[in-house]
Amino acid sequence: MIEATYLATRPESDPESLAERIAREQSLEILPELIPQAIGEALLGQVVSVKARSEETYLIRIAYPEILASGQLSQLMQLLYGNVSFYPRIRLIDFCLSRHLIEAFSGPRAGIKGLRQRLDVEHRALLLTVLKPRGSDPDFLATLAERFVLGGGDILKDDQNLVDPTFDAFVRRVSACADAVQRACEITGKACLYLPTVSGAGGELEARMEWVAQQGLPGVVMCPWILGLESAGAAARDHDLLWLAHPAGAGSHTQPVDHGIAPELIFGRLPRLAGSDLTIFPGSGGRISLGDSSGGTDLAVAQALREPLGALAPSLPCTGGGKTIEQLPETVAELGPDCAVVVGGDLLKSGAQMTATTRSAIRRLEDAI
Predict the structure, then answer these.
(1) Is the pLDDT of residue 369 over 90?
(2) Are the C-beta atoms of residues 46 and 3 closer than 8 Å to each other?
(3) What is the pLDDT of residues 194-234, one digit of tens each?
(4) Cα–Cα distances in angstroms (integers) from residue 206 to residues 200, 233, 234, 242, 254, in the given order
(5) How many Cβ atoms sit within 10 Å of the Cβ of residue 296?
(6) Domain 2-102 has CATH 3.40.190.10
(7) Residues 6+ apart with CB under 8 A from 197
(8) Is the omega angle on the peptide bond into residue 247 within 30 degrees of 0, that is, cis?
(9) pLDDT tens-place string over residues 70-88
């Protein structure tokens, strides 16, 4: 069985009736009198429990037959939070899968251990920066890339909106940046992973993924809440590429707090099931955040990416949303060393001094061990 837990806030009907409606809506979506007995016994969702958490909130646990997921991540999401997403103030806060179903999904190719092996960085947190802004000349972006790598930076990604209108423009820009990364790595003797952003649909996405794989680049950045979570995972898997899940579009799924899907599921368990090796989420204290200044939500997301999940490898939590170099020690203290901290503008603004600034940031991460 698949067990889902929902938080109902100020329900419009009695909680027990609401739970029965959700169970039927999500499993068979049909009037009770139209459900044949055999089908109901085999496929109808069953209310496990309804418990008051406060005067205004209730925890509703529902068990769904595993066959309703059809072995597909997209269908699992539809089962857990499809039509019920239209119900007011209902939030999916947890779900449990059988080991058999978990292992039907791909999970990360490399995971944290594989990423550390590629970078030859065993213990400290990793430093990730972003190439931006869109409209920049490829040579300018390549210069930024080179400065970061010469400073010992670990992971370099395209901004999520650094998307070229033509395939040729994509090749020119990514080639310039990849060549700069390669030259700088040869100088430092240290690896840096460069992940270009890919987007589009059908043949356009396929062509860019195929080209990235042919160039020997390690992986790509995709926005799974725009492209589709299962589609993004399949595209990376088909081309044997690592991928970083960018959170663009996910805010509509996880805010406000009495509706949608909990952050540890949106940024943690779901992209991990889909195979993301790295997942960015907006951490507290930055320009964009999840609205929890205590950092507890950040830790919950990080734990969902790293905790045991069947035989799946852990994904690397990447906390971003406007982090600064000054925040590196406190971020590592909060999340632990098995994470990457995304520092974009605070590194880029150092201009010609970016290499020295990157070195300083790496020292802060080493001191935080």
Answers:
(1) no
(2) no
(3) 999 999 888 999 999 999 999 999 999 999 999 999 999 99
(4) 9, 13, 11, 15, 30
(5) 12
(6) no
(7) 157, 158, 159, 160, 161, 162, 163, 220, 221, 222, 246
(8) no
(9) 999 999 999 999 999 999 9
Write out the two tokens for 170: 């994509």
Q: Where are the domains of the chain?
A: 2-102, 111-367
Q: What is the CATH number of domain 111-367?
A: 3.20.20.110
Is the peptide bond between 133 and the residue preceding it cis, with omega within 30 degrees of 0? yes
CB count, 10 Å around CB of 332? Answer: 21
CA dihedral 278, 282, 283, 286 (to 10 degrees): 130
CB 286 within 8 A of CB 254: no
Check: CB of residue 107 under 8 Å from CB of residue 319.
no
Q: What is the pTM of this model?
A: 0.94
- Report the residue count for the chain: 369
CATH topology of 2-102 equal to that of 111-367? no
Q: How many CB atoms lie within 10 A of CB 255?
A: 13
Q: Name the token pair of 359.
A: 């070195």
